[in-house]
């Protein structure tokens, strides 16, 4: 049977986003010095923030300028940027005051047996 050329060409598959769980480390070690911790995950700087016993993850670089949120101060569920005092809600990345105009990107986090894992997108 002859296949027409148009039928033999496959449509390119849509790129699917795959979640990879990156092992960040043990809760006790990550937060030994405070409730903020920044780390590099395959070239992406991610900030971890602990409120009570819950860990949240955001892109660590402020959306307003070149500052690391993990160098900031926690205020409840807020992380205050050390450069211009912009405040983000660590639960959802929402920019809560000026001079911020853009939210921070959030990353899913899970804690299993005292170890923190961060969901990072991978293109397949
Ligand atoms: S760099 Fe973060 S508020 Fe300006």
Task: Describe the 3D structure.
Its cofactor is [2Fe-2S] cluster. Belongs to the bacterial ring-hydroxylating dioxygenase ferredoxin component family. This is Rieske (2Fe-2S) iron-sulfur domain containing protein. InterPro entries: Rieske_2Fe-2S, Rieske_2Fe-2S_sf. The structure is a single chain. It contains 2 helices and 10 strands. It is mostly beta strands and 124 residues long. It has a single domain, classed as Rieske [2Fe-2S] iron-sulphur domain (Rieske Iron-sulfur Protein). A 4-stranded antiparallel sheet has the order 2-3-4-8, with no helix packed on it. Strand 2 and strand 3 form a beta hairpin. The longest helix is centred in the N-terminal third of the chain and has 4 residues. FE2/S2 (inorganic) cluster (FES) binds next to loops.
Index terms:
mainly beta; three-stranded antiparallel β-sheet; 2 iron, 2 sulfur cluster binding; Rieske_2Fe-2S; single chain; 2 helices; four-stranded antiparallel β-sheet; 10 strands; binds FE2/S2 (inorganic) cluster; 124 residues; Rieske Iron-sulfur Protein
């Amino acid at each position: 049977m002859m296949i027409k050329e148009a039928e033999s060409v496959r449509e390119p598959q849509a790129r699917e986003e795959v979640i990879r769980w990156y092992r960040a480390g043990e809760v006790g070690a990550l937060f030994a010095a405070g409730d903020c911790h920044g780390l590099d995950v395959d070239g992406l700087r991610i900030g971890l923030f602990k409120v009570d016993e819950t860990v949240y993850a955001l892109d660590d670089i402020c959306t307003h300028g070149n500052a690391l949120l993990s160098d900031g101060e926690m205020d409840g569920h807020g992380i205050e940027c050390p450069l211009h005092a912009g405040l983000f809600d660590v639960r959802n990345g929402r920019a809560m005051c000026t001079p911020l105009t853009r939210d921070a990107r959030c990353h899913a986090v899970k804690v299993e047996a005292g170890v923190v894992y961060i969901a990072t997108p991978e293109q397949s």
